[in-house]
Protein 1
Amino acid sequence: MILFEQITSLPEEYIKRSVDLFLLEDRVANDVTTIFSISEDSYCKANIEVESKCIFVGGPIIKYILADCDYEIFYKDGDYVPQNGIIANISGKSSTILTRERVLLNIIQRLSGIASTTKKYVEIAKPFGVQILDTRKTTPGLRLFEKYAVVMGGGTNHRLDLSAAFLIKDNHLKAGGGITNVIKKINENNKFGLNVELEVDTIEQLKEGLNLCVKCFLLDNMPPDMIREAVTIVRKNSEGNDIFLEASGGITLENLKDYVSTGINAISIGALTHRIVSSNIHINFE
């Protein structure tokens, strides 16, 4: 299996820097509604609750957004939370909770939605030993958060950024003079031994890559029958069992079963981070 760096935790400085930007964006220090309607000496208790079951992600973020409050979190990131479950209790100044409520919910709703969606894909793929990979189709500025959420949902991170590996796509081939020319240039300059993955959308391209000893292929927008043909060709190669095959393009929860049974190693799903529905989480004051 090909394995990239996995985002299994979030650096504290990254969380703090991001939270500062989130709070600045919402101008929490200038919440006119709260400033002119809530007394400075008003204190309250509240619960963070889920309306529909989900995989929770966001514990380390709560710590920074509600740094001036007391709180108790009952679930770890990656835990299943049942319908109407209480994620955490909060107590503190009413104004602090009110001004930060939306920022807190926006991020944990999104990350929990990503983890919950990922879990659905992973459960279908697991019996076939197929990895579910994310992509770089992430929200600008939120990539670490979103890739972390994928891992919390049981998925696997693909490359974090453009420096992490060679991924040769169709436009690289068009701009670089074709498969043979591009692979030759990369092999001459791959001084750090980075993974080299070639995107192909035809059997002819796959065979050309095999002749150049490519060890990792992205089978792009191939229907299941064509993927089975590609898998058969690759596995018959003398080093076929060591070649990593990833499928991508047009694969959804509804048709995933058609793909996981093809003999593929992994499936990358852009929708894990760019087409998800945020989890339904809210804050209720007692």
Protein 2
Amino acid sequence: MCNICAAHFIAVPSPFAPGNMFSVECSYVNKLIPPKDFQAAQETMMYELWNKTKKELEQIGFASENKLEEEQFLRAEWVGTKRYASEHWAFSHPSARPCDTTLAEFNYNYPRHPRGVAAPKRGMAPKQNFTTYRTKRRLADLHPFFSLKGALYKFRNLYGTVPPNNSWVYTFYNEG
């Protein structure tokens, strides 16, 4: 079933677990870039993207004229550079099969377990698709890097491969 489990899993802007607390199978973690090398790998990938011309970004589908989207694309916490690389590390491999214990309607603005709601149980994550996620988070403007195309780009760049056909990645981005 899952090979990495957290209290809460977030897929966008990049897969991670708030609080960096998770349980993981050794067979999965052994596939990851070593933590001491991950920040450099992530920053190399992003600096190469940031230094591409507008035409080069258009060719790979990452061009945007929207100022908000451009700001997202440069935010360290969204793309996993600087100190944020460690938050992106655990879920960075294309073979990740995440699960979490939060309810699908979970929102940080409300208590985790409101009165009358049963405590959540572990289940495969993410519990929403990309369309629902964007609607709930009011993310009408989202840089193309934070789409399926961007996720696949990261996997290819960091690990030289993409997720298997039955991965949550395809289901998450293509549903809705």
Protein 3
Amino acid sequence: MCEIGWKLAAILRTGRFFTDEELVNLYKSQVLSYIEYRTAAIYHACDTILAPLDAVQTRFLRELGISEAVALFHFNLAPLSCRRDIAMLRLIHRCVLEKGPEHFGTFFVPSSSLSRNTRSTSRRHGRQIADIRNRRFLEIERRSALGFIWVYNRIPESTISHDCVKDFQRSLQLVLKDHILAGCDDWKDTLSPRIAVYKHPLR
């Protein structure tokens, strides 16, 4: 965190010499790249542990006077929590497309069929994954890659249909933007497995 702090401070000190767009680009190259290379290793941590990390971008946007929604729409800079969710979903999509590491294939296997023919299941896409989690839905499972199976199975068909991982990632950001435009206050939780099913934005 110390190294991230001084990197951010150095960028903010040069604020008068650059436009907001240039500062965001500096932040992405100098700070985001440092934070995000360890996403898969830290995702399982609880929210209180990740909060100081998320505060880095919150501080950056506050200093620029930019809201999180504006940052997403104008600079394609989603909140760090959303970026972590997208990174983990990208991993699963790579496995579904058989482009990822083979050993992950044992965790993300195609579902043979939907359990019940209901209005909810009829709206789901055709690349469903079998949920192999413990049926008690342990919290540590919810915060792992396995927790994303529930989320992945409920992502819109238009997003899942992408055979290019970059296009899939870009489309996930569009899902977030759609929830903002729809006036959803919980748009940042749209792709998160940490939210209880009964109140999840994708339910």
Protein 4
Amino acid sequence: MKDPPAIQENVEYDSKTGMYVLTERVGGKDVRPPTYMTYEDYLKYTEKQERDAYFKERASAVNLVEDKSLIPPIQVKKQFFDRLFGGSKIEIKPQGYVDMTLGFNIQKTANPNIPIRNRKTGGFDFDMHININVIGKIGDKLQLGVKYNTQSGFAFDNTVKIGYTGDQDDIIKVIEAGNVSLPLQTRLITGSQTLFGVKTQFQFGRLTWTTVLSHNNRRKKPW
């Protein structure tokens, strides 16, 4: 366990003995016997202190990046937000990267039959790769998810979905728009997982009603 913050460490050099003296005090009184170190021991001590501080700083930076989103949460103090979405906090967490490549191609042809001005041709070569994943949330009921990758092989790999989830006692249980699925609890007819449209689910007592209006999105992405 770490020492409490009230303990103050101090290192002093004793010119008479040529030793470094490490003391730990609280209110000007020693809480432990002094530690005597040679010059080599003092170098190892300072190296360990700096190394521990460095890794602690790196760990704090990593945790800050993972915990903190690029866009800070927005707090909306409206009662209808709390009633409709189960909260007034808006969060948007984008993840991913954009890779851009910019170059220039030049081609020179030593053909005497071609005019001199046409023997040298060139142009810019531009390429971009986007891979992003955005997760949004309003309160506890409304969620937004966007996944887009320019190098995906099929169109259904890129998804956009907005979902609303009601409480246990609400009639409206689920409202989804975008990439939806239709799982069926039977082995005779399999449900589809690559639909694009609107899905709703209502509950009236023990009756659950699910409706899907969509089209199949399982096709290869055009190049």
